[in-house]
Amino acid sequence: MKKKVALVTTGGTIASTRNAANKLESGKLNGNEILAMCQLEQEIDIVLVDLFQVPSMHMSFEHLNTLHKKIIELLQDPKLSGIVVTHGTDSLEETAYFLELTIMDKRPIIVTGSQKSPSDPGTDVYANLRNSLLVAADDASDGIGTCVVFNEKIVHAKYVKKIHSSSINGFGSIGYGMLGFIDNDEVIIYQKPTKREHYAIQPSYPQVEIVYAHLGAGATILELLATTDVKGIVLVGAGRGQITPAMTDAVQKLCQQGVKIVLTTATDEGRVFPTYDYYGSANNLEQHGVIMGGDFDAKKACMKLRLMLANHDQHYATFMH
């Protein structure tokens, strides 16, 4: 019996064409135009939904809510094995994590894209899309949650990261590895998440910003944010989570104002921890109300914090555990 998979398109390089100036214009092709080249029509029953045609940095939370609702609608079909979402690569990891945090279903949701356009020599469009559809259709994929399939790798949404600006090996999860891979159309799954979180979508979301610490960093950005209606900030500290003394003064004031601040690390591996005890250390910041962000990268921490604030969820210890 043929498996049934829904394909939801949102635009991006995977649906791009070149204009007269030989520059890529994202989201110009529809799903049928891309699918026609993947040679999968006889193997999988594909339900095609052309939802958006936008560059991924034009995606908004309104788009994400619409995408979420469409996926929930599609999942009402008990015969559906899984979902594939095509997406531009620049914000792909954020959309994938939003879906991971807001949809609880054992069937896989696969997000994919491409680094090259469909007409480029050596394009990765068709391999990524074909592999994604195969993963979404495979019974072994049940329970993997939302994942990114790219360059034959299956990577979980929580840890996936765009690791190269242009190479077809564009996504990975440094330090955490893959959940599996695709080899000659065979889907190999060798690990699955041990726990998942769930938050409800909301009509609107509070503003959360990301601020990086670096040698000599001042308080200007943080002081400016203190004059806005920002509700959350993700601090990207050095090493175990250290920031400069100038930033520390401003962070303390923001905490007193009730702004929720999550501390993450700029390193690709490891987590923040209150190891050191000096002004601007993670320990010092935690004493003033800063939330330890565990091993989250800044973008994922930002997405999780935004959803937590929107849902009035104060279980901030889940960043560390």
Structure description:
The protein is of the alpha/beta class and 321 residues long. It has two domains: 187 residues, L-asparaginase, N-terminal domain (Rossmann fold, 3-Layer(aba) Sandwich), CATH 3.40.50; 112 residues, Rossmann fold (3-Layer(aba) Sandwich), CATH 3.40.50. Helices cover 25% and strands 21% of the residues. The chain is built from eight helices and 16 strands. The strands form four sheets. Strands 4-1-5-6-7-8-11-12 form an eight-stranded mixed sheet, with helices on both faces. It has a four-stranded parallel sheet with strand order 13-14-15-16, with helices on both faces. Strand 13, helix 5 and strand 14 form a beta-alpha-beta unit. Helix 3 runs parallel beside helix 8. The longest helix is centred in the first third of the chain and has 14 residues. The chain is elongated and about 65 Å long. It starts with a strand and ends in an 11-residue tail after the last helix.
User: How many H/I helices?
Assistant: 8
| CATH architecture annotation of the largest domain | 3-Layer(aba) Sandwich
Distance between the termini: 42 Å
Relevant CATH superfamily of the largest domain: L-asparaginase, N-terminal domain
Please state the average pLDDT score.
93
| Low-pLDDT regions | none
Helix content: 10-25%
Number of strands: 16
Number of domains: 2
Structural class: alpha/beta
Kindly provide the radius of gyration, computed on alpha-carbon positions and rounded to a whole number of angstroms: 21 Å
Beta-strand fraction estimate: 15-25%
**CATH fold call of the largest domain:** Rossmann fold
**Major sheet details:** 8 strands, mixed
Order of strands in the sheet with the most strands? 4-1-5-6-7-8-11-12
List the secondary-structure elements in sequence, H or E: EEEHEHEHEHEEEEEEEHEHEHEH
Q: What's the shape? A: elongated
CATH class identity of the largest domain: Alpha Beta
